[in-house]
Amino acid sequence: MVKTTNEYKNRVTFAIISHPDAGKTTLTEQLLLHGGVIRQAGTVKGRGSNKMASSDWMAIEQQRGISVTSSVLQFDYAGKRINILDTPGHEDFSEDTYRTLMAVDSAVMVIDSAKGIEPQTRRLFEIVAKRKIPVFTFFNKLDRDGRQAFDLVDELEKTLGIEACPMNWPVGSGQLLQGIYDLQADKLIKYSHTKELDQSVYDEAQTEIELLKEAGNKLDEDKVMYGRQTPVFFGSALANFGVEQFLNEYLKYAPAPSEKPTIDQQEIQPDDPQFTAFVFKIQANMNPNHRDRIAFVRIVSGNFVKGMEVTLARNGKKLKLSNVTEFLADERENIQNAVPGDIIGLYDTGNFQIGDSIFSGKKRVEFEPLPTFTPDLFNRVLAKDVMKQKTYHKGINQLVQEGTVQLFQSWRGQEYILGAVGQLQFEVFQFRMANEYNSQVIFEPIGKKIARWIDPEDLDEKMNSSRSLLMRDRKGDPVILFENQFSLNWFADKYPNVKLQAKL
Ligand code: GDP
């Protein structure tokens, strides 16, 4: 009998969401510094001039054999074990990014206080909001002249539709930054670069703080837990100002790993002794000499023990989990033990698909499938060498199962169209087709489209036109790719009873 422990309760598993350049990397670095993982800032992404620190970083990457900057970071801080799941920035934007948000218990939203809410923050926030997971906001770059704090908070509430609860409040900004006022402890935390307090700046902030104390939102933990209120912090990641306060407060309110629904409407609790987990990401090793892939697995319940046998819910296959990698940054051994909330990396030779559930013991557990996302970029795809159809089809099928891209097929006929939410997905697909399946593919860009799923019962082949391509998705369900909003509206007028559905 496997023992259960309460160890999972000290796990904090989250992702940082932000628009590129808002300061996600810099904040991550600061968190790692606080966790004692790295010694000096400027190490992530090989930025900065400090050689020793960056070689530390490289060493971590090498030891793990995977790119740290695109996966999972684990470290201990203040009695908690923290798992940060990376959601790659702008250029790397993909369905992977979205799916990673399915494996976290909370999110930290970093916003540039000179810019406010930017498009990518909004896109990522929407996904987080749909899952109703707690979001904590960090307005960054307070050491620079930014927008008024009230203005930023107001925009946050209006554009994202979430209540904001300031936990601290800036006293000045940029050149005039005096500090932040801790509204919980009711005290000023002085900015270290400020020698003498500027009284007029301080007085102005004081008026705002009084206003907040009287009329501002009060912290409501229930609302935070359901993602209806976001605690808001101000600070500067680069100056390491307000970061520690943020981290401590965040850890106070961040949720521990919670239950997860199965396809038969059960909930698996984290203290359930049966080991259960799901695959949320598959990362291929880009090195052609190593064909292996790593399946990123989030543990939902029970304890992981190296070498344990599990069943893959999709096909009943039994697997022994011996070839595992860990993400703990300051230990070098292979992982021995992990608990709910933790992420393990399983070296995979083709067993896993995105969204797969695994479980130990006899009781079959299958979690609800990961959501499909509505792609908006599309490419028609063809094999360069028509003689190599077999490997071409094999490659497409496997890569689609891994979630690299989405596949659509014309309703009548053999035409393949690939869909993605980020351009990089196509590049990865093309690269891997060539490298792993020896199949050169040609893309014919068909541009942006609006994909909408329809009920198979509403299907009428007359719906197919050059402005509304009727396709089937991987599961065979009908989907229409509209040329633009205009053609979608036109269609909706013509077929008022047909429900057009977007995925997440
Ligand atoms: P990411 O794209 O969100 O990961 O952003 P980075 O962490 O790479 O930061 C983008 C740029 O903003 C870099 O030049 C950082 O040095 C800078 N930056 C990040 N945080 C701060 C901050 O608090 N203050 C200032 N002035 N610059 C910052």
Beta-strand segment tally: 28
Shape: globular
β-strand percent reads 25-35%
CATH class of the largest domain: Alpha Beta
| CATH fold descriptor of the largest domain | Rossmann fold
Q: Give average pLDDT, whole number.
A: 87
CATH-scheme architecture of the largest domain: 3-Layer(aba) Sandwich
Give me the secondary-structure category.
alpha+beta
- Widest β-sheet, arrangement of strands: 2-3-1-4-5-10-6
Spatial extent as radius of gyration: 24 Å
Biggest sheet features: 7 strands, mixed
Number of domains: 3
Query: What separation lies between the terminal Cα atoms?
Result: 40 Å
The helical percent reads 25-40%
Low-confidence parts: 45-70, 330-334
Protein architecture, described:
The chain contains eleven helices and 28 strands. It is of the alpha+beta class and 504 residues long. The strands form six sheets. Strands 2-3-1-4-5-10-6 form a seven-stranded mixed β-sheet, sandwiched between helices. Strands 17-16-21-13-14-20-18 form a seven-stranded antiparallel β-sheet. A hairpin with an 8-residue loop joins β13 (276-284) and β14 (293-301). The longest helix is centred in the middle third of the chain and has 17 residues, at 199-215. The protein binds guanosine-5'-diphosphate (GDP). Guanosine-5'-diphosphate binds at residues 18, 20-26, 89, 140-141, 143-144, 236-239.
